[in-house]
Amino acid sequence: MVPEKYYLNADTDKVTILSDNKGKSGVYRWKNTINGKSYIGSAIDLRKRFYQYYNVKFLENHSSMYINRSLLKHGYSKFSLEILEYCLPEEVLTKENAYIKILPHEYNILPTAGSPLGSTKSGDTKKRISDSIKGTNHPNYGKDLSPETKKRISDSKKGTAFGAAIGKSVEVLDLNTNEKTIYASGRLAAKDIGVFPTTIFRAIKSGKQIKKRWKRKFIE
């Protein structure tokens, strides 16, 4: 497979990488030239994504990602970068998943592109979770509950709903630059911008801007 662009040294090729990928969307692959391990990713704005990779503070703040830790450990000069394919913004996740299926990707944490939790539940598992929240399998089924108990149950469900919402993918629009970034979860978006996850949820629900700069929405 021949990539559309190939940069042998991500350190010395930094300026070219940022220049070549201005205003482009696509799928990319980092490859560690020491151990051969790879990371496959995609971005609606490739240059903005690469700016993040070249920001040491960003890598440190997101060190839970294997690729970020490896870049910090080995340095950019020990990595090559490939643009596997340029594509339309709406195609990036589909294309990324296609490459993940056929190419090695030792540094990828999530098994599929855009899956915020990195896993999917079977129908039986989903049913058990649902039954544990309501219905005949719930421990409070058939009981005459006090107002205080009902309130605690209601508050608990709201907390569960909030947690699920924060786990959804989030699109962030920077009103200063008009650039959009998609995060795998509200928690990652919150960490990048420097706010609490609850701030994200409330801002999306109310439609208000955050710090008079960012607008957000969930991606179904």
Record field, number of beta strands? 7
User: Numbering strands along the chain, what is their spatial order in the largest sheet?
Assistant: 1-4-2-3
* Total number of helices: 9
- How far apart the termini lie comes to 32 Å
Calculate the mean pLDDT score and round it. Answer: 76
**What number of domains?**
2
| Assigned CATH architecture of the largest domain | 3-Layer(aba) Sandwich
Low-confidence region ranges: 115-122, 132-141, 155-166
H/E series: EHEEHHHEHHHEEHHE
Instruction: Please state roughly what percent of the residues sit in beta strands, choosing from under 5%, 5-15%, 15-25%, 25-35%, 35-45% or over 45%.
Output: 15-25%
Shape: globular
CATH topology category name of the largest domain: GIY-YIG endonuclease
By CATH, the superfamily of the largest domain comes out as GIY-YIG endonuclease
